């Protein structure tokens, strides 16, 4: 999708569109120097007109908002869960997720698309012979689920998300293992059974996303 990045993709989940790029650097943060471990990190941002009304650029405000910091840390944590950092070697890959258009689920789309960009960047490393074994041992994808109008719903859009009685984000590996679960209720509570039902729905959603990831990187 972009000329200069080692890996890039555009992910579209309904009306949520996120450009994800992966950039390789032959260095690591100071706390990892001489450890033999690689690092994967992420940055996240929303373009001013990705929403219904123009948002001020965070750069013009002089600092990132708390939501932005939370999301980019989540993206980094999630992607690292599928990485063998010893196999990656002492190098860093930064995944940038820029929301072009938002309609709910931007963090989930960023994680799912970010993995594709990361996969493509790692493929270049392997093709060049810079690494011997594949450091990505599983897919990583994420999906939102919630209870809207009394019904479990997969991949909430903005109207559904804003009115959902329960909503959550599920980050999982391709093998079905959980990386992170964020669930909350708004104005009500939810039962263990409802949580299990949403988890089952998320598993189906992630399976579909992993299939799309495979098609993207193999195509």
From TrEMBL:
Domain spans labelled Exoribonuclease phosphorolytic: 3-121, 140-205
A UniProt-annotated Pfam family: RNase_PH
Alphabetic keyword roster: Nucleotidyltransferase, RNA-binding, rRNA processing, Transferase, tRNA processing, tRNA-binding
Alphabetical GO biological process terms: rRNA 3'-end processing; rRNA catabolic process; tRNA processing
Keyword rRNA processing in record: yes
GO MF assignments: 3'-5'-RNA exonuclease activity; tRNA binding; tRNA nucleotidyltransferase activity
Entry's EC annotation: 2.7.7.56
Catalytic reaction(s) noted: tRNA(n+1) + phosphate = tRNA(n) + a ribonucleoside 5'-diphosphate
Complexes and interactors: Homohexameric ring arranged as a trimer of dimers.
Assigned protein family: Belongs to the RNase PH family.
PANTHER family in the cross-refs: EXOSOME COMPLEX COMPONENT, EXOSOME COMPLEX COMPONENT RRP41
UniProt function note: Phosphorolytic 3'-5' exoribonuclease that plays an important role in tRNA 3'-end maturation. Removes nucleotide residues following the 3'-CCA terminus of tRNAs; can also add nucleotides to the ends of RNA molecules by using nucleoside diphosphates as substrates, but this may not be physiologically important. Probably plays a role in initiation of 16S rRNA degradation (leading to ribosome degradation) during starvation.
NCBIfam families tied to this protein: RNasePH
Protein name: Ribonuclease PH
Upper taxonomic lineage: Bacteria, Pseudomonadati, Pseudomonadota, Alphaproteobacteria, Rhodobacterales
Gene: rph
């Amino acid at each position: 999708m972009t000329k200069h990045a080692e890996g890039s993709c555009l992910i579209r989940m309904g009306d949520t569109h996120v450009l994800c790029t992966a950039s390789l650097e032959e260095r690591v943060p100071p706390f990892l120097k001489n450890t033999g471990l690689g690092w994967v990190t992420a940055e996240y941002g929303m373009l001013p007109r990705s929403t219904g009304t123009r948002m001020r650029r965070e750069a013009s405000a002089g600092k990132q908002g708390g939501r932005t910091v939370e999301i980019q840390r989540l993206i980094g944590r999630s992607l690292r869960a599928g990485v063998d950092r010893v196999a990656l070697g002492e190098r860093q890959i930064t995944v940038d997720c820029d929301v072009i258009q938002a309609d709910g689920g931007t963090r989930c789309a960023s994680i799912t698309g970010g993995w594709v960009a990361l996969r493509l960047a790692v493929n270049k490393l392997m093709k060049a012979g810079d690494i011997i074994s594949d450091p990505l041992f599983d897919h990583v994808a994420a999906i939102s689920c919630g209870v809207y109008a009394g019904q479990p719903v997969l991949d909430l859009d903005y109207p559904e998300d804003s009115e959902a009685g329960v909503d959550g984000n599920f980050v999982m590996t391709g093998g079905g293992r959980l990386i992170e679960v964020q669930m909350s209720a708004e104005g009500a509570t939810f039962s263990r059974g409802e949580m299990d039902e949403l988890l089952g729905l998320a598993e189906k959603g992630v399976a579909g996303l992993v299939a799309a990831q495979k098609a993207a990187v193999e195509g």
